[in-house]
Amino acid sequence: MKQIGGRVAKPDHIGRRYADGLFVTVADLPETIDTLLNDPDMASPELAVFVKTHAGPSPQALEAVRDGRIRLLISHRHPADSALSLIDSSRKISEGTAVKTLDEVTHQIAWSDRMLRQWAEGGPNLMIDFVSMATRPYEVGARINAFLDLGLTPEQVHEEIDRLEADKTRYGKFNKGKVDRRNDEMSPDEIARLEQVAPYMTELYVANPL
Asked: Does the predicted TM-score (pTM) go above 0.85?
């Protein structure tokens, strides 16, 4: 195992082609991504490094996006649905003892909106909306396959998606997978408030409606 930015990166199985890759979660600090970029062990062409982050980009990270060292996939959804997902995850992580309020997650959504825009406007990327992931997963898989030059056949893409959907113990364990759930669980005023604090996420959703 390797220590990266205060976190431990463990070899992980991210699809059959990348059994020897690393999956690293860096949810907090942009500097941790810079640590990865500057680590000679991470520069091997034989090693695929997958980084999942909610952090904003550093200048070095954006430079790496522009020169092709980072291939950037950005997932997004309506800000009110994101807020409900955050509340759900706080309930599950704390086993119901520290459930976040809508006010608390509203601040998080506003911050995420700014970080999302910084990444999206920083260089080439593949934007993936939640509605497409939930309703057209094979199509999204094909887009990711092409963007990352994975070289998978359509059949292999379907197999990987079926595998992920069959085992949600690690992937999507906080997600109900329901499209537009805000309409059933929030008032119009609550939805409008989240759209106001997250204009970029709202703009992306309007551009990719169900």
From this structure: no
* Residue entry with tokens 């992931």: 133
Question: Do 134 and 177 contact (CB within 8 A), yes or no?
Answer: yes
* Rounded Cα–Cα distance for residues 10 and 22 (Å): 6
pLDDT, tens digit, for every residue of 46-67?
666 677 777 788 888 899 889 8
The span from the first CA to the last CA of the chain, in angstroms, equals: 42
Would you call 129 exposed, middle or buried from its count of C-beta atoms within 10 A (0-12, 13-18, 19+)? Answer: buried
CA–CA gap between residue 189 and residue 180 (Å, rounded): 16
| CA 107 – CA 111 distance, rounded (Å) | 6
One DSSP character per residue, 111-141 reads HHHHHHHHHHTTS-EEEEEHHHHHH-HHHHH
